[in-house]
Design brief:
With 276 residues, the protein is mainly beta. It has 1 helix and 22 strands. The longest helix is centred in the middle third of the chain and has 11 residues.
Length: 276
């Protein structure tokens, strides 16, 4: 068992349904799964600004209309936002360049189709919730909360994101929480380790939310892609975003965000401390 503490760090007013975040030098980039804005929060000043990702960026999109950006990562000083993939509108990648203030867009449909074919996955069951880049390969975290329960990692080797690359799938079985399987909700790379979040919802749909029975944090060996440990951190909350906050000798700290499945325009950021 890993010793941990979990506490509220701050609350941000103005948007809800936070699904991913990145911490950098007292600033947080946050993505909401029902918005096509990227939010930038200055912790010291307690100020939040909205970054327009597209010409027609909107907030509070209806479920059937949203891009469902569930994965956010940083690479080469750019912010990558990945759609979850379960529907055509959720199959795009937005890459934001903070230096230039510009966004480029890529259609991920060919790559996501290759993922489905690799494991004979129905279209509605693809559910990408986290992405990391390590050792010249892209690792996509598939949340196996559909009927087939395919929870695991899609691997694309190479620096570029291309559908022509060979696809490998590694199934990852996580513990049950109250007899419900936990499935991935985000991941972040820390040196040679990949820390991940997973939630257990009593539902077999990637589209409809079920009764929440808990969330856990875990760690993968980035080279072997095997699970080092898992630790349940709550029985009542669904954490969907994970970013490194501090990495010290005796402890490692993360910032977490949750999707509270309400229309309240407020996002709570939590601090999780794990003892090493």
């Amino acid at each position: 068992m890993q010793k941990f503490t979990l506490e509220i760090l701050l609350k941000i007013i103005g948007f809800g349904s936070a699904s991913g975040l990145i911490y950098n030098d007292n600033f947080i980039y946050i993505v909401s799964d029902n918005s096509t804005f990227l939010y930038h929060h200055d912790i010291a000043e307690n100020k939040t600004s909205k970054i327009k990702l597209f010409d027609n960026s909107q907030e509070n999109l209806k479920k059937k209309e949203k891009s469902d950006f569930e994965s956010v990562m940083q690479k080469d000083k750019k912010i990558y936002l990945f759609g979850s993939g379960s529907k055509p509108k959720r199959q795009r990648l937005a890459i934001y360049d903070p230096k230039k203030g510009t966004t480029t867009e890529t259609n991920l449909a060919p790559i996501y189709d290759a993922f489905r074919k690799a494991v004979q996955l129905p279209k509605e069951e693809l559910n990408i919730e986290g992405v990391v880049f390590y050792d010249n390969q892209w690792i996509f975290f598939q949340r196996g909360n559909g009927k087939l329960g395919k929870n695991g990692l899609f691997i694309l080797k190479g620096k570029k994101l291309e559908a022509s690359q060979d696809v490998t799938f590694i199934e990852i079985k996580l513990p049950n929480l109250k007899n419900v399987a936990a499935t991935f909700t985000d991941a972040v790379l820390v040196k040679d380790k990949i820390y991940f979040l997973a939630a257990a919802e009593d539902s077999n749909s990637t589209y409809k939310d079920g009764e929440l029975v808990g969330s856990l944090i875990g760690c993968l060996d980035a080279k072997k892609l095997t699970v080092d440990f898992t630790q349940t951190i709550t029985a009542t909350q669904k954490f969907e975003g994970l970013t490194l906050y501090k990495n010290a000798k005796d402890s490692i700290e993360f910032l977490l965000c949750e999707d509270n499945d309400t229309e309240t325009p407020e996002s709570t950021i939590y601090k999780l401390v794990l003892q090493k």
